[in-house]
Design brief:
There is one protein chain. By secondary structure, this protein is of the alpha+beta class. The protein contains five helices and 18 strands. A hairpin with a 3-residue loop joins strand 1 and strand 2. The longest helix is centred in the last third of the chain and has 15 residues. The two termini are 25 Å apart.
């Protein structure tokens, strides 16, 4: 392994001081909160350090010329740090090239998504001014492929449903949750008949079934889950018979037939596709 796998390379601007730890994975534990598995790219991270979280721009954003780094406003104190081999061993610090775990009092795994960078609060000015490089992330963040509307069986049970779904989201970072008023027919809501609910994004049909089963097993709660909808992109084309206002966007994303373009428009319909290689 040592002969075939090269050792970790240092970043070109590594000065041995600025800490950049890349999040590989994160999960939630009831007693400790979020535990982040990180790879140390530069510097030394130790218990007691105050850190902030940065979401670097993706490769696609860099190609488009928009460096969309997202800098977190909150900072956290590192409570425990160590290595996983495979059980956790507390070491008190991690140095460049090592991989280990970090516990810093986070309560939501979505605050430490894979690809995010942990850095010392006192070094954030160097990252904000782009004086120190940030490795690109693989994606821009959450990308749900299906959306469903979730409503309580009883009209008074929305608060209980929201609390139960929020608990599930702590251990399932793939969920994308948005509250809906239920007064309209589009946008993933349940319409005026089902009332207030939650618009939940999933990674696939199996994810929907797992969510429904966990909701019943862990919270003893049954809910109305509407059939999942796939978002479609509508791109409007120039038309002689109908002139679309230039102030309106040329491309919109819809999830409901009620939002389908009116008769007379010329448009293209694009649906999500995936390129798969089966071995």
């Amino acid at each position: 392994i040592c002969e075939r796998v090269p050792p970790p390379r240092s970043l070109p601007d590594d000065d041995g001081v600025v800490v950049r730890a890349k999040v590989i994975d994160s999960w939630f534990e009831t007693k400790r909160g979020v535990i982040a598995l990180v790879r140390m790219l530069s510097g030394t991270l130790a218990e007691g350090d105050r850190i902030s979280i940065v979401e670097p721009a993706s490769y696609d954003q860099i190609k488009e010329g928009s460096i969309g780094h997202k800098f977190g406003k909150d900072n956290f104190s590192v409570q425990e740090i160590g290595m996983v081999i495979p059980h956790r061993i507390r070491t008190g610090k991690l140095i460049r090239g090592q991989m280990g775990y970090v516990i810093a009092g986070l309560r939501d795994p979505r605050e430490a998504r894979p690809g995010a960078i942990l850095s010392l609060q006192k070094s954030m000015s160097l990252l904000v001014s782009n004086e120190m490089a940030l490795p690109p992330s693989v994606s821009t963040g959450q990308q749900s492929v299906l959306y469903a509307s979730v409503h309580p069986i009883e009209g008074e049970g929305f608060d209980e449903l929201f609390a139960a779904v929020s608990r599930l989201a702590l251990s399932d970072a793939g969920l994308e949750i948005q509250q809906t008023g239920g007064s309209g027919s589009g946008g993933g809501g349940g319409g005026p008949f089902l009332g207030p609910g939650l618009r939940v994004g999933f990674q696939g049909l199996l994810h929907v079934e797992v969510f429904r089963q966990r909701l019943q097993d862990e919270s003893d709660l049954e809910a109305i889950v509407t059939p999942p909808k796939v978002p479609y992109a509508i791109r409007y084309l120039p038309s002689k018979n109908y002139h679309r206002s230039p102030e309106l966007p040329r491309e919109v994303v819809i999830e409901d037939l009620a939002d389908w373009p009116a008769q007379g428009h010329r448009f293209e319909v694009m649906e999500p596709m995936v390129r798969v290689r089966i071995l």
